[in-house]
Amino acid sequence: MKVTLSALNTSESSFTPLVVIELAQDVKEETKEWLKNRIIAKKEDGVRRLLTSGIVIQVFPLHDNEALKKLEDSWYTRFALKYQPIDSIRGYFGETIALYFGFLEYFTFALIPMAVIGLPYYLFVWEDYDKYVIFASFNLIWSTVILEVWKRGCANMTYRWGTLLMKRKFEEPRPGFHGVLGINPITGKEEPLYPSYKRQLRIYLVSLPFVCLCLYFSLYVMMIYFDLEVWALGLHENSGSEWTSVLLYVPSIIYAIVIEIMNRLYRYAAEFLTSWENHRLESAYQNHLILKVLVFNFLNCFASLFYIAFVLKDMKLLRQSLATLLITSQILNQIVESLLPYWLQRKHGVRVKRKMQALKTDIDATLYEQVILEKEMGTYLGTFDDYLELFLQFGYVSLFSCVYPLAAAFAVLNNFTEVNSDALKMCRVFKRPFSEPSASIGVWQLAFETMSVISVVTNCALIGMSPQVNAIFPESKADLILIVVAVEHALLALKFILAFAIPDKPRHIQVKLARLEFESLEALKQQQMKLVTENLKEEPKESGKEKAT
């Protein structure tokens, strides 16, 4: 849509637009008038239909520059170790994004005890696996406690915001859903209909084989990485120079970069496939996308570490690979997600300002400049990638904690900068997203809890493989396996007991919710009594009329 200065001339009116709708260039005037009438009549499906048909290119709310400046001043412009203004973030961006930043802050502070305890283990008892039993046990209890305590903190926030008891609303078809027009038997509205069996065929005959093929390719790349490791190690053993000792880290660095590239390419493919599956609801689309991406990312990021730990049984290489993968992925994420987009956005902003200076006009073109600038900003696609990054980081920290206890310290350092870079990204790189209410972090809570369960198994297995533990059972490996399995089951039982013992909601929230339910029931009873009383009063009048007739 070509934006003209006359269309944005606000000198004769105090009207300030809140939302920008960009139309395709060949849209007819009749379509524009129809859309305007739908907006005036508050018909929500009008814009959705035009987005699906490609007539509307994008819809986004403009940034409120004054409110944004206040938020930035209290959030990230002054670098300091302080709590984030979560309520202010919620007021500007909505509950979903505020919950992400609240979880990021909470997770960062929760990592500090692990970092503090892991540092002396790294410095003083590097090869003493007996000592790591204590550290790994603490890690397993820690991973359970922090997730349960987060539920309580999340309940506090969402109760304060009024979204804790948010009812699930009926979902409309998502933009992009297509099919033969028909009548929805539930709503009675006309909308596209698509047979579910066709969707299932697409999932099982195309999407599933494609995902399996990608997983196989990921494992193939992993084996190439191990060939490079063997080559670098052989070169170092033959020469023994300082240059070749540095070369030992090159295969891990290259592999970490390849992992990030593969994750991003696969993400595009997964989005295309999930969209092609033609899910009617946005929630179904998101669930299928999350499943595809989580499975691939987990295998792609952690398969090499499991192979080194349980097939090669090389603890030195495991430490080196874990450290390299963690640090390299954190650096790449900071550059690709925040620094590079911010630099590109700044360059675009300079071009727009030069263009505005070249326009000789008497009207105030500030609004025009803002629309043109924000129109070209990236679209924030939700918190999926942000939570995924924290999920993988949690895996690096918890899965192999007894081998590399310094992982938590690197995660803390990264997250302190992540808070500021993500804040910068939201305020200056992306368009302002529409506010979305949320009661929790959703399926990611289950994902983190699943990772903590897997970490119990891996840490118990690593401790059972240590030379010190094997020396206790030199003759009977069966006894060792039974003891490791028993310890693993005992720790899992402890995790579930802790999860059950720690309530998801604080006591004062439970009392307030119970009181709210009681008051609602009392109000309903009073309303019912009032209706019954009114009906009883009307009955004598009606009987009197019957006698008169």
TrEMBL record:
Membrane topology: Multi-pass membrane protein
Annotated TM spans: 97-126, 132-150, 203-226, 246-266, 289-310, 390-413, 480-502
Anoctamin transmembrane domain sequence ranges: 89-515
Any Pfam family: Anoctamin
Domain of life: Eukaryota
InterPro entries assigned: Anoctamin (IPR007632), Anoctamin_TM (IPR049452)
Gene Ontology CC terms: plasma membrane
Record GO terms (molecular function): chloride channel activity
Keywords: Membrane, Transmembrane, Transmembrane helix
Protein localization: Membrane
PANTHER family: ANOCTAMIN (PTHR12308), ANOCTAMIN-10 (PTHR12308:SF40)
Family that this chain belongs to: Belongs to the anoctamin family.
Protein name as it appears in the record: Anoctamin
Annotated organism of origin: Cercocebus atys
Protein encoded by which gene: ANO10
